[in-house]
Specification:
Elements lengths: L13 H21 L1 H23 L4 H14 L5 H18 L4 H26 L4 H26 L3 E3 L3 E5 H22 L3 H29 L14 H21 L3 H4 L3
Antiparallel strand pairs: 1-2
Helix pairs in contact: 1-2, 1-6, 2-3, 2-5, 3-4, 4-5, 5-6, 5-9, 6-7, 6-8, 6-9, 7-8, 8-9
């Protein structure tokens, strides 16, 4: 998440961040652990909220209609019929483009928002429900992303140093980014022991997950900078919007799903 909080107020947000995490994380873990319709219901709620945030951030009209279609897309993932998912996706993107103001930039923003939001939700659902041990995979990868975020947040603020991309997210530092990668490599080492798998692939996977999550964070920070907003929303105290919170996990879910489908032997190498 791109952090634009003034330096003297960064740690003052910590209590609200922790309280929000205590509410959000158990809900996410339950939905992912159960999978199926439980996960689809969670994806539906998340997709609707993120679409509302995107519409408000990008000034795309008819936000309620697009949010309803987004909720239907989340639910359609559990039906198991690709034609329904594609149909809802196509209807939403056409509606978003047609509802947008009649200029090319606004229509591109509206259409991209649907692809961006739906892609993250679809990636998480497929990571959990794919042809591998999705329950363990999703739980591990989610925890790795959270470990990366926490390490980057705390060590970045303690160690400070050179900024990573000052124009996109002025409070992100190289020390925080490196701490995130180190933290997830250690998580990979622990996971390898639990799964009785080779250590090196898991540690590499952990580092790549951190890098992917941080790229997702920076990408969303760039989008917010383009629309001249600090946060995508206000639904999560201390974190901003839901898009602010799941941007890294969404990127990891999409990339991991694509890699696992492209290299079917990789989940087995990780004991998954």
């Amino acid at each position: 998440m791109g952090d634009w909080t003034p330096p003297d107020k960064r740690f003052s947000e910590l209590p609200r961040r922790l309280l929000t995490a205590l509410v959000l994380i158990p809900f996410a873990l339950f939905a992912v652990w159960m999978g199926g319709w439980w996960l689809a219901a969670g994806c539906s709620a998340f997709c609707a909220v993120m679409m509302l945030e995107w519409c408000r951030m990008s000034a795309t009209p008819n936000e309620t209609l697009l949010a309803v279609l987004s909720a239907l897309f989340g639910l359609s993932l559990a039906i198991g019929d690709d034609r329904i998912c594609v149909g809802v996706f196509a209807a939403t993107i056409v509606m978003a483009v047609l509802c947008a103001p009649k200029d090319t930039e606004a229509r591109i923003s509206a259409g991209f928002g649907v692809i961006y939001v739906f892609g993250m939700v679809f990636g998480l659902f497929m990571l959990r429900e794919g042809p591998w041990n999705g329950q363990l995979t999703a739980m591990y990868f989610m925890s790795f992303v959270w470990a990366s975020d926490a390490a980057a947040y705390f060590f970045g603020r303690m160690l400070k140093g050179p900024r990573l991309l000052p124009k996109e997210s002025p409070n992100k530092t190289w020390s925080g980014a490196i701490a995130g990668v180190v933290a997830t490599s250690l998580c990979g080492y622990i996971a390898a022991g639990w799964e009785e798998a080779a250590v090196a692939p898991w540690m590499i996977a952990g580092m790549l997950i951190s890098i992917g999550a941080q790229i997702g964070d920076l990408f969303e920070s760039g989008l917010k900078r383009r629309f001249k907003v600090k946060d995508s929303g206000t639904i999560l105290p201390g974190h901003g919007g839901l898009l602010d919170r799941v941007d890294g996990l969404g990127a990891v879910s999409i990339l991991s799903t694509l890699i696992f489908l492209s290299v079917p032997s990789l989940p087995g190498l990780l004991g998954l």
